[in-house]
Amino acid sequence: MKKFTRVLAVVLALCCVACMFSACGSSKDENVIVFGTNAEFPPFESVVANGVVSSADGTQQYDGIDMAIAVKIAENNGKTAVINNIEFDSLLVALQNGQLDACIAGMTITEDRMKEVDFSIPYYTATQVMIVKEGSDIKTAQDMADKKIAVVQGYTGQTVVEGLGFEFTAFKKGTECVLELVNGKCDVVVIDSATAQKYVADNAGLVIVEDATAFEAEEYGIAVKKGNTELLDMINKEIEAMLADGTISSLAVQYTEAE
């Protein structure tokens, strides 16, 4: 009898554990889309006091072109968008691990990234530029050869500078790069064009230098876990609609010209 009691106790315990795992697996709110971003990339995403979308716990709010797009994608499908703000280099890993439903972070569609995740159709085209101080002798990308270059870790700017064969220092945030430039600790920052416009507008004495021969146009996409065709189709449908009716163009103007 004691043996039977012990066996029964073990069976009941295992059933309880199974139920707990089952509950965990079904606890995800199907009415919520968790977007991952790195909110250090204005005008696409940044932490603000009163944003268009918040973190799951409501402790932080976010705004920008990407954030507005995420909200529209969710709302147009009867869902709520929430943001998980993490380091850029960790976004695709978090997506693959199921911590995120999608990544929207001014993320360039590249062949290497396409091996890891599925991308939406492009929703924005940008290029890399150089931010320098007024009066700088940097006029082309090749002029950076003997200069102190700052890039954001994991961003396309880092890839471009590596491709040119130049040494650089990588920072976690674009604001850190610009601060290095303002304080005279570096000569140039290589970063996406729309973000560069925002930093130059916010910091007197800085200008943008373009070099179309060195920096090719790049396309931003929203990433989802490989095989998540249902979500990808939903996102693509909304992007197509927002491109067709001018919504994304209007958001770009709104956020790049905002003071």
What does this structure look like?
By secondary structure, the chain is α/β, with parallel strands linked by helices. The protein is 39% helix and 23% strand. The protein is built from 9 helices and 16 strands. It has helices spanning 2-26, 65-75, 91-96, 111-114, 156-164, 174-182, 193-202, 229-244, 247-256, and strands at 32-37, 40-41, 45-48, 53-54, 61-63, 80-85, 102-103, 117-119, 124-126, 128-133, 149-152, 169-171, 188-192, 206-209, 218-220, 223-225. The strands form 4 sheets. A 5-stranded mixed sheet has the order 6-1-7-16-8. It has a 5-stranded mixed sheet with strand order 12-11-13-10-14. Residues 1-27 have low confidence and may be disordered.
Number of helices: 9
Shape: globular
Major sheet strand order: 6-1-7-16-8
Strand content: 15-25%
- Average of pLDDT: 88
What value does the Rg take, in angstroms? 22 Å
**Class derived from helix and strand content:** alpha/beta
Distance between the termini: 78 Å
Major sheet attributes = 5 strands, mixed
Q: How many β-strand stretches?
A: 16
Q: What proportion of the residues is helical, as a percent range?
A: 25-40%
Helices and strands, in order, run as HEEEEEHEHEHEEEEHEHEHEEEHH
What low-confidence regions span 5 or more consecutive residues with pLDDT below 50? 1-27
